[in-house]
What we know:
The protein is mostly helical. It is 23% helix and 0% strand.
Amino acid sequence: MKKLTMMLMACLLMSGAFAQSSPGAATAARVQTLRGVDIDGPEAPSDNFRNERDARALPRDFVQQPPLIPHTIKGYNITKNFNKCLDCHAWSRTADSGAPRVSITHFRTRGGTELSNVSPLRYFCTQCHVPQTDAQPLVGNSFKPAAGMR
Ligand code: HEC
Ligand code: HEC
């Protein structure tokens, strides 16, 4: 009986989906960005941007800012078992790679325990550190660095 109900529900859902994708309904709505720009129009944000060239470390704008990544990270995968960033940034690797070591703050757990390697809290580097591209900012920004950082 349960199975039959499930099948009936599936049929109902599917007929709903077909009704929505019928040609009549599709022409009615144009696809727009959240700010109301037509995605096919001339003002649409471009997703065709280039990574900045590898450079020296970039200035920081506020205390505790995760430094920006001054190099491309194309193909640098971070998975549960492997972290490409640590290939160069782990303390054991920096002598050879010449990369700055991950900050010592990255060994601390949420509870304040110091671990012998990068804490799970800081494992997914690109959660905080971002690479740079030539894409135009989506919104304006009038942020000024704090006095001590100028
Ligand atoms: C092939 C080696 C290599 C890999 C892999 C690598 N980096 Fe780097 N990274 C460097 C080097 C070298 C520098 C220093 C650039 C300079 O200052 O001249 C650097 C600089 C940085 C900085 C700037 C630090 C500062 O003090 O401003 C950050 C942040 C960073 N990398 C994050 C990452 C992240 C996140 C990943 C993985 C997605 C990654 N890196 C992968 C070599 C690497
Ligand atoms: C939760 C956010 C967060 C994550 C995740 C994170 N970082 Fe950071 N990182 C920071 C902040 C904030 C700073 C600057 C303050 C500090 O040193 O803690 C920093 C500093 C750094 C620096 C500069 C160290 C120095 O001495 O100037 C490097 C290099 C770095 N991180 C690499 C990494 C790598 C590689 C990973 C991934 C394994 C990573 N970070 C993950 C927030 C993060």
